[in-house]
């Protein structure tokens, strides 16, 4: 497989990314984790750059409001993890750019999601801690917040914390029917409420996990799970669909962070990157039962990545944080 960089732009400490498209518009959104801009790049107009906001970054998560070109975003998740002033804003598309309104304050919320259901939108917010004396204080574990997002009022209603407390509550993955949440306490499955049951958390793994992705990389019809082990850890682990470990790496990927799983052509892969040491971005696949890797790029230190399709071609979007670079790679020969 070949990855050719076809677009590059400078954005200091670029972090959160998202594809945002409908029948008439097509953008990628990239936001900084520092007090820096959020940019939209118009894929229908030669990557024309639009400033969504000029500063007040600190953005960890971008979430599209279903059926619209509007989205929610965290801001002020700084300094470091001591982010008591974190908030969520709504960006409303006006045809040429986005207008901002503040949904509310959400201290320490690192990942969040809105989940469509028959009666509206659920809100899930994962705080990395509940309070902190300093950046390295983890004595007050984070919470999983749930509620109802009211888009007309632009606010979260019925907000409450589940009983469970999670230390270094960092990773989140929507699995289209349930969610996975990762922390120093392990990997948990979050089931959504039904008429007969409330929100429910089930533990899948005891291993300290920073982030997680899923893909059927061996083609057996069942998903595998790629986990970054340790908090921004130096290891990766791959689980089978029963969450039994089938691969564990040497500690050769310090500050593991970028993670994705999905289809490229007719096969599924993982993409993984880390932010220290060689700061590589790599493709992970399975062949004849063996895990194989291919280097995509070096010394870029990616924070988040995703694969997207445009005009029947495939591309990789990477926020190369340590290189202050928004990068798009054309994927061929797969």
Describe the structure concisely.
The chain has 334 residues and is mainly β. The chain has a domain of 121 residues.
Main attributes of the structure:
single chain, mainly beta, four-stranded antiparallel β-sheet
Explain what this protein looks like in three dimensions.
- The structure is a single chain.
- The chain is mainly beta and 334 residues long.
- Helix content is 0%, strand content 58%.
- The strands form seven sheets. Strands 1-28-27-26 form a four-stranded antiparallel sheet, with no helix packed on it.
- A hairpin with a 6-residue loop joins β6 (62-64) and β7.
- The termini are close together.
- The relative contact order is 0.13.
- What is the tally of beta strands? 28
This entry's quaternary arrangement is single chain
Radius of gyration: 19 Å
How many distinct helices? 0
Sheet with the most strands: spatial strand order: 1-28-27-26
Instruction: Tell me about the largest β-sheet.
Output: 4 strands, antiparallel
Helix/sheet category:
mainly beta
**Order of helices and strands, N to C?**
EEEEEEEEEEEEEEEEEEEEEEEEEEEE
Tell me the overall shape: globular
| Helical content (DSSP H or I, runs of 4+) | under 10%
Give average pLDDT, whole number: 97
Distance between the termini: 5 Å
Low-pLDDT segments: none
Strand content: over 45%
